[in-house]
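#lab-general

N.A. 3:47 PM
ok so I finally got the sequence cleaned up, no stray characters, all 216 residues accounted for. can someone with queue access submit it? mine expired

B.Y. 3:52 PM
send it over

N.A. 3:53 PM
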Amino acid sequence: ENNNRNQHGLFFSSSHDDNNDDNNSNNNNEEEEQYVLELEVATPEDMEEVGAMLSMGTKGGDVILLGGDLGAGKTCFSRGFVRARTGSTHQSVTSPTYLLSNTYPTDHDNPTIIHHMDLYRLSGNKDDFDPLDLDHVFTNCISLIEWPSRLGDLTPLERLDISFQIHMDSNDSEEEDDDEPETRTRHLTLTPHGKKWRDKILLLDEEGYLDDLIIE
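B.Y. 4:20 PM
back already:
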């Protein structure tokens, strides 16, 4: 396991079971799922920068699933992602809870649509997903999906899973957590599924891109 902390206070660690490297090629998918990158993100601005960093090079068919704690920064992450990918620094990006999906075109000449979805209001019944046209979206668009557990067996095999957690210090009380949740560090766990996402996360980890992208 590798651990680093940059000058901005953003901590990242990676873990991978090297003992599996000698396994045959039939185990490649399993190995890919075992690789994770963990981040501790101290501020909303840093969270937007992480979103911006992960937006680089995304294209139609790319899916990012955003799970974890309520109020842990998923919409903030999405705001950074959308603004960076569309090139619109003042783009309004809000939670799609009531609309199910907000869309943002990325390019004027050859637009790829970003779909920012919140599936909380869906029961998980497959008929609930018909208005979202997931077959088309997962093939041709970029997807940021909150409450991804609702997808069930509709979950794409190739994707990036991100779990958001609000960091709790051992000295914190529940009352303090209720009063000031926005001041707490967020813990992100990035788990790539598929070679494309695995290669991207490995590159960010090994080349130190996080150091360059977090703004002081």
